[in-house]
Each structure stands twice: as C-alpha cells, then as structure tokens.
Amino acid sequence: MRIAKTFLLTVSLVVFGSFSIRAAETAETLAEKAVSGSAEESRAAVAALREMRQAGLDALFEKYGEQIDRFIKTGEKTSEWARISAAIDAVAMQKDAYASRLFWLTDLDEAKRLSKETGKPILSLRLLGNLNEEFSCANSRFFRAVLYSNKDISDVLRERYVLHWQSVRPAPRITIDFGDGRKIERTITGNSVHYVLDETGTVINALPGLYTPKQFLTFLRTSGAWLEQAKQFESDDSWSSLKKAEKRRVFLKNMREREFSALRQYVNSRTLPLKIKFDKKSAPRRQFEEMPTAVQVAPLAIAKMATEVMFLDDVLPDITRYGAEQIDFESWKKIAEISLKNSKLDASSLSFIRNQTGRENLSEAQFASLVARLEELLAIDSARNDFLLRPTLLVWLNKDLDRDVDALNKKVYDELFLTPNEDPWLGLYAPDVYTALDGGGITR
User: Fold this and answer.
1) Which of 14, 293, 311, 401 has the largest count of CB atoms under 10 Å?
2) 150, 140 in Cβ contact below 8 A?
3) Other CB atoms closer than 10 Å to residue 414's CB: what's the count?
4) Residue 319 predicted with pLDDT over 50
5) Which is higher by pLDDT, 331 or 72?
C-alpha cells in the first residue's frame, strides 16, 4: 500500500510539474507572439494573455523585463519598444501600463465574479474617454502618471483589489492650430471618480477627482479595511439580532459618518484662520446636503453599537455650501498647504514624467520646477475635492445605501461634476451666446 501511494504521489508530481512547465511555456510563447508575431498572431496572443488576467500581463513583464527597465532609465522609444508597450497596454487595458503593471477589466459583471472568487473588493473607475487611450480625460491621465505609477499604490491595487474601469462618455478634445505647422492637442472638461465596491457591486466608498498619492493610498487602505471589518462585524452573532446584510450596512454607514465628521473638522481648521467671507445672498452654485443620522438604516439591538454611532447635527461649513467661485487661487494655495506634504511624487512617478516630457529637453532646473508646480496643483485639487465634492458624495452614500453604482454615478456626473448626459456639449456650447462664427463654430 505504501509503495502504491508513493508511486501515485510521484506520478502526480510529474504530471503536475509537466503541466506547470507547459503553462509557463505557453505564457512565454504568447508573450513573444504578442510582440514579434504577425498582426493576426499578435491580436490572438493579446486576447489569450487577457484571458489569463494578471498572470498574462506578468508574462509580458517577465519576457521583456530588460527592455522595460531600459526604457524606464533612458526613455528611448525604439520600434521594438513601440511593439512591447503596445502589447502591454492592450493586455492591461491601460495606457502606459509599463509603469503600473496593473490589469483592468472593463466588464463589471466579470469584476464581481472575480471579486467573489478572490475575496478582494473592486476598484471601479468611471471616466470620460478610455483608460487605454492617450486622450482620456485629464483626471485619468494624471491617475496614470502620479497614482497608478506610484510603487506603493500599484502594489496595493495589484495585490488587494480587482480593477475595473468604465467610460461615461467620450472626452472632448481641442486642437490649437498656429497655422505654421505647429499644433497643440488637449482634452478639455470632464472629471473622474473611483468607487470601491464589494462582491455584489454595492458601493463601499468613493473618491471624486484627483488626489495626492498619499491621500489616494489612504483611501484604498481605509476602504479595504472598512469592508474587512464589516464582514467580521456581520459574522458576529454574539450580541445583535440584526441580519448579516443589515449589520454590514449599519457598520459601513457609521464609518462614512466618521469620515464625514473628519472632513468637516478639516475644512473648519483650514478655512476659519483665513477668515474667508462668502456672499450668502448670491445664488450658490451647489447646495450640499447634511448627513442623516446613523440609526435611520435599522434599529440597533444593544448599546454596544450605539456607542459607536455619531450624530451629526451641525450644518456644513459655508465653504461647502457657497462653492469655490468665491475663493481666489492664492487662498486655495493656503488652504492646501496641509495637503502639499502628501503630494510628493515617488521615484517611479518621477521617472514616468521625465520620460513623458523627454522630447521637451527640459533642464534639471526646469524639470524640478515642473514637478514642484505639479505637486502644488495636486494639493490644491485634493483640497478642493475634499471641501466641495466628497462631503456630499458621502451623504449620498448614506442616504441611499442600496443605490446601484450606475445610478449613483449618473447623479455624480449630473449634480456633483455638473456634466449631465442631457447636455451633449458638456457646457462648452450655449445657443444664446454669439460667437461671430457660422453655425456657432460647430462642425458635425
């Protein structure tokens, strides 16, 4: 019997080892074909590597690690590098994925299935344009440059999240033609938002717009911790008669209230010393809502949970009610000083930016100035989003705990970002404004 068991174990190891070798060879062969094969072979190899998800993307990094490292160091764009980077981006479904090594799904149902399989939450990005294209909206381009390329962030995203993105609508592009062969092309308007979802697609947390690397990393870690703690809380039957689903909802609602309260204290601490005055008689651009009480979701069984609940009776500070239009740029710089220390870019992001600006032949002093300016603008964007957008988004999450993510996203773009789908021109064209151009300058 012992001999038979030993024989079976040996055969199993040999078979399993052979299967592993074949699988590895297959991934390596696919990685080679994705770059060096014919156009048809390349498309088929890319599709097969995407089926392998992160492992397929990793196969490209293992096969072309030397070339990737060389490009990161030199920024030299050879014809070989063009093929390698195109294959990486196609498998990852993200532009410039060489800097992040992140694999993205574009089907939310598939993301939910993978979330259930792995136990990982979903990070769902909603944006204008497509993440795998150069000219996606400005926010998403900065995500690629200063967030996803950040080593700590990319590690957390790759190891702890299922990644998904979905385009809300195309990103508007504008071309400035100087008439002498020189052109500048940009995208204009548009905003993006990250949602953290559980395995059912329910929204756990959300972050609107662009944030500093440190604040974005905190958001990822905090949101993941919330969900893990909620799962532990709902499985604890020692004290509450609430159903598991209700327990999760109550716990997450309480966490969002705490976040809301912390934001309110932060806003007050930054704005009160500046003595900013607001014209309350003028029509505000936004009217932000107040957080509901924590116990509206369900009756609580005992005082243990009640001691954790915070009742928010104070109104939001004036800054969140009367908008950013009454605050000048210098005041925003002062408000954002506390965020500036969180906006420092790591070596990976700096290398990415250096390669992206390589053709401009910037001196070290010019590059340092560019980075300093970028870090300052990151801090200002973070402050504005924390002051003007995130409080209301937290309120919306707690007022409708079961809102579908797509319905919530529509509300965000309509009422928070002020770019409703009903306006096909995203506020860039108004029929009552005369331009002295035939047809208002519109070409179809």
Assistant:
1) 401
2) no
3) 14
4) no
5) 72
